[in-house]
Design brief:
By secondary structure, the chain is α+β, with helices and mostly antiparallel strands. About 25% of the residues lie in helices and about 35% in strands. The radius of gyration is 44 Å and the shape is elongated.
């Protein structure tokens, strides 16, 4: 009996030693090691969302806005709980808004929470280049959690594609394209004028007038199309975006395909030039009067006499 107990005690001591050795080896290899090799186990804590109020990693740090269009500066504050969000202007440390309450006399500023994204958005109506700078979005934690956003307000410019006046034939299609540059948000409107009056779009009497507008990046293109243009469509056309200066051009609808206005030489220049056929007639008349030329001295006088006869004749043709 005593021998059996002694044997069990020895076996228990050996098993305990094995456990101790295995525990020491695992402590040296690390919790994610198997057979001495590191196992790529995911760090689940890294994927867990931050606890408490914080800013989303993709919260924007730079916003580009254009004169004439409202500027929207988002702040992606998350897990706010009972905390509030404030917007502060850096250059003078002026508190603009707290939650949806405004604390400035500048009525252009306001803030609201976007019901779709949950972002707290600072809105600046009628922004100007002088409003450019840093704005701070802060959460009322202790200590305060804040993020800075740079706002750049640019001045859009407009241009009409093409060089100078526009010429087209009667019955053709008039195509004018107005391009607005440096406009990160589309203009609220682009108006077209003809003879200082708004252009009426639509179809009437076999004529169609329409406008196509495309916005890409910070550029907006507006094309005015007038199908089956008539002489009445002649005149000054102007493009006026909501956020840029008005620009204009002159349109000429012509009756024929080769009008006088399209020629390189004007009528006054043609009237002041003696026709080549008239000079030939003068030369033949002179030769008939003078008869054959036999001497060198007579040959030398031909150009002088020809000039004396042709000048009065040219003057007569010019004044006809």
């Amino acid at each position: 009996m005593s021998g059996s107990l002694l044997l069990h005690a020895l076996l228990l001591l050996q098993f305990t030693d094995v456990l101790l050795v295995d525990s020491k080896m695992r402590s040296k290899l690390g919790p994610n090691d198997v057979n001495g090799q590191e196992v790529g186990m995911p760090d689940w804590e890294a994927f867990a969302p931050p606890k408490g109020p914080h800013f989303a990693p993709d919260s924007p740090k730079h916003i580009l806005a254009a004169v004439g269009s409202p500027a929207h500066v988002p702040c992606k504050a998350r897990n706010l709980g009972s905390k509030s969000v404030s917007w502060i202007r850096h250059r003078d440390l002026h508190v603009l808004t707290v939650s949806s309450f405004t604390f400035t006399n500048d009525e252009r500023f306001s803030a609201h929470r976007d019901s779709t994204t949950g972002d707290w958005v600072l809105v600046l109506r009628r922004p100007q280049p002088s409003d450019s700078g840093y704005y701070e979005c802060s959460i009322s934690t202790k200590p305060v959690t804040a993020i800075s956003v740079k706002l750049d307000v640019v001045v859009p410019t407009a241009e009409l594609l093409g060089d100078g006046d526009v010429f087209l034939d009667n019955g053709s299609t008039l195509n004018l394209t107005c391009v607005v540059h440096f406009s990160p948000t589309p203009p609220e409107f682009i108006l077209w004028y003809h003879r200082d009056k708004l252009v009426n779009y639509g179809s009437r009497e076999g004529r169609e007038i329409k406008v196509d507008t495309i916005h890409d990046g910070d550029t907006t293109r507006s094309s005015l199309l007038v199908h089956n243009a008539t002489l009445w469509d002649t005149g000054k056309y102007a493009c006026k975006p909501s956020n840029a200066k008005r620009i204009s051009t002159q349109v000429h609808v012509l009756k024929s395909k080769t009008p006088a206005a399209m020629q390189t030489t004007d009528n006054s220049a043609r009237q002041g030039t003696l026709a080549p056929s008239a000079l030939v007639q003068v030369l033949l008349a002179f030769l008939c009067l003078c008869g054959p030329v036999d001497h060198v001295s007579q040959v030398a006088t031909v150009p002088i006499l020809l000039l004396g006869i042709s000048l009065p004749f040219a003057t007569l043709l010019t004044n006809r």
